């Protein structure tokens, strides 16, 4: 069992940018229409913006405001599927005997986002990139809690998923639309997260990813939520 505070949050999805947008969605959640929209990252130099995929732009758009004014801020970046569009482009070039782009490859690896974050923010604090199946949110929180326990005054947690290309549709069915959630975690006991590993009865697949379910709990002023993945049940509890 771990305890922590959620000091601030930011989220982005196509058409959902403000806190009011997300409150409305959390009250009546629905799958968003397909869109190529990308978040505004005009706070970055134009030359650097051109290198960023939508996944990276989503991560920067939610993380940058939360990190404003904070120095030596550890970052935990979580994405189950990562840069699927870039990966498919590389595999397609390989299948067609086309020359591979070193830049495309370097930006497709799972820690590319935290590398860009470190460079653009001149940040040297500890950073971790995780891919942890359907309960990546909870594994990210565990990593962040460990950093808080080691003395970090705050940890930035970013969870983001890109809409996968159609070629992956048979295997990726847990990304209803592109989204990113940023959480600034600090020491405290406002929230409690506990893991149960007892035998879990098969349940209906959750309609929304864990990160979006947590956001619904936050914005609907609910006191608790539960996420199950395989033989793991994660219990979230907010202090009254």
What is the CATH architecture descriptor?
A: 3-Layer(aba) Sandwich
**Percent range for β-strand residues:** 15-25%
Largest sheet: 7 strands, mixed
Mass-distribution shape: globular
Q: How large is the count of helical segments?
A: 8
Radius of gyration: 18 Å
- Helix-strand pattern: EHHHEHHHEHEEHEE
Uncertain ranges: none
Instruction: Average the pLDDT over all residues and give the rounded result.
Output: 91
How many structural domains does the protein architecture include?
1
CATH fold title: Peroxisomal Thiolase, Chain A, domain 1
User: Which CATH class?
Assistant: Alpha Beta
CATH superfamily: Thiolase/Chalcone synthase
Which structural class do you get from the secondary structure elements? alpha/beta
- Percent in helix: 25-40%
Please report the total strand number as a whole number. 7
The end-to-end distance, rounded to whole angstroms, is 17 Å
Account of the protein in words:
The chain is α/β, with parallel strands linked by helices and 240 residues long. It has a single domain, classed as Peroxisomal Thiolase, Chain A, domain 1, CATH 3.40.47.10. It has helices at 19-27, 46-49, 54-67, 84-95, 102-108, 112-121, 136-149, 210-219, and strands spanning 2-12, 75-78, 127-130, 155-161, 179-196, 224-229, 232-238. Strand 6 and strand 7 (232-238) form a beta hairpin. It is globular and about 60 Å long. The relative contact order is 0.21.
Key features of this structure:
240 residues, alpha/beta, Peroxisomal Thiolase, Chain A, domain 1, 7-stranded mixed beta sheet, single chain, 33% helix, 7 strands
């Amino acid at each position: 069992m771990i305890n922590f505070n959620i000091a601030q949050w930011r989220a982005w999805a196509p058409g959902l940018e403000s806190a009011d947008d997300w409150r409305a969605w959390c009250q009546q959640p629905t799958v968003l229409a397909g869109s190529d929209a990308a978040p505004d990252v005009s706070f970055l130099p134009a030359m650097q913006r051109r290198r960023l995929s939508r996944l990276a732009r989503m991560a920067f758009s939610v993380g940058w405001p939360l990190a404003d004014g904070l120095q030596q801020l550890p970052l935990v970046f979580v994405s189950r599927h990562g840069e699927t569009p870039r990966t498919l482009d590389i595999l397609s070039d390989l299948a067609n005997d086309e020359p591979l782009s070193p830049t495309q490859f370097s930006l497709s690896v799972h820690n590319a986002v935290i590398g860009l974050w470190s460079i653009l923010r001149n940040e040297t604090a500890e950073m971790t990139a995780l891919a942890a199946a359907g309960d990546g949110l909870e594994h990210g929180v565990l990593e962040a809690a460990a950093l808080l326990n080691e003395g970090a005054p705050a940890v930035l947690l970013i969870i983001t998923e890109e809409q996968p290309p159609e070629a992956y549709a048979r295997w990726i069915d847990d990304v209803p639309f592109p989204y990113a959630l940023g959480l600034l975690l600090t020491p405290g006991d406002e929230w409690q997260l506990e893991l149960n590993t007892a035998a879990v009865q098969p349940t209906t697949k959750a309609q929304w990813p864990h990160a979006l379910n947590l956001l619904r709990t936050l914005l609907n002023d609910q006191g608790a939520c539960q996420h199950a993945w395989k033989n793991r049940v994660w219990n979230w509890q907010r202090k009254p």
